[in-house]
Amino acid sequence: MSAELSAAPEPMNAGAPAVSSAPGTLALQWATVRVLMMRDIVRFFRQPSRVVGALAQPILFWFVIGTGFAGSFRVEGAQGLGYQEFFFPGVVTMVLLFSAIFATITVIEDRKEGFLQAVLAGPGSRLAVVLGKALGSSAIALLQASLFLLFAPLAGVSAATLDLPLLVTVMVLSALALTGMGMALAWWVRSSAGYHAVMSIAMLPMWVLSGAVFPLKGVDSWLAWVMRLNPMRYSVEGVRRALYGAEASVSLGASSGLAGLEVPVLLAFAAVFVGLAAFSVSRRE
Q: For residue 68, with 0-12 CB atoms within 10 Å meaning exposed, 13-18 middle and 19 or more buried, which class applies?
């Protein structure tokens, strides 16, 4: 009997290496990014007030401010451009800014609820967590800005001057940069009220001094240097050039040498603040 057992054929898989069904490192990182990104997007659509406000707020802001300053807006060399046309690219950037503020405030809420601590304890890296939150918040910001851009024909935008690839690139990089800045600040702030205060001091002046509200042309004081060094200026000028062409930007005070620099500067802007957000997450829980 023992001889028969010893002579029995070995199983087909004997000696073959065991196949692991565990996902790889790259798959785990992508799963972390995808889950966090989709969670923020689904949360946005489950809040009807945010969806309605995404379209109503910028329209009212553009219409009221644009109408109020329409009679007093005069820029030499840009007589054919009214204030509503001038202000439209600034409102597009404002939508990206406000969306980044309201989307990244969820970082504070998720930390209070213990959700982020659970995610950080998982297999995903800190960079994957930051990218997931940044991409989700950026997608929401881009969606809101895209809804507002449906009114571009009312602001004098024509197909002849529209540069769609430049517009998309500038908006994507701007959204990532502003979201990264918001995440880097939100990670170090404990309360939502404190976060709003910090963002009002840090980001709103950047938008006001970006050429969104008033043109750089005619500003001769130290304020002009602040506006020239403001990285958000490249976002506003990039959107303006993509909508109205380079001539409109130059007539409003933008340097002709800025053309073509918007994308590299915004790319560096986004890389710095997304990296800063990843560093902040890695340094403190």
A: exposed
Model confidence, pTM: 0.81
Helix axes 192-202, 164-186, angle to 10 degrees: 130
106, 40 Cβ separation under 8 angstroms:
yes
Integer Cα distance of 115 and 111 in angstroms = 6
Q: What is the pLDDT along the chain (285 residues), one digit of tens a residue?
A: 444 444 545 554 555 454 445 567 788 788 888 888 898 888 888 877 777 776 788 888 888 887 777 766 666 555 566 788 888 998 999 888 888 877 788 888 777 777 777 777 777 777 888 888 889 888 988 988 998 998 888 888 888 888 899 999 999 999 999 998 888 888 888 777 788 788 778 778 888 888 888 777 766 777 778 888 888 888 998 998 888 877 666 655 555 556 678 889 999 999 998 888 888 877 655
Residue type for position 69: F
Q: What is the DSSP string of 153-193?
A: GGGT--TTT--HHHHHHHHHHHHHHHHHHHHHHHTT--SHH
Q: Note whether 238 and 145 are within 8 A (CB).
A: no
Rg of the chain on CA atoms, in Å: 25
CA end-to-end distance (rounded Å), the chain: 65
Distance, in Å, from the CA atom of 171 to the CA atom of 156, rounded to the nearest integer, reads 19
User: What is the spatial distance between Cα 250 and Cα 75, in angstroms, rounded to a whole number?
Assistant: 12
CB 195 within 8 A of CB 112: no
Rounded to the nearest 5 percent, the helix, strand and coil shares of the chain are 75, 0, 25
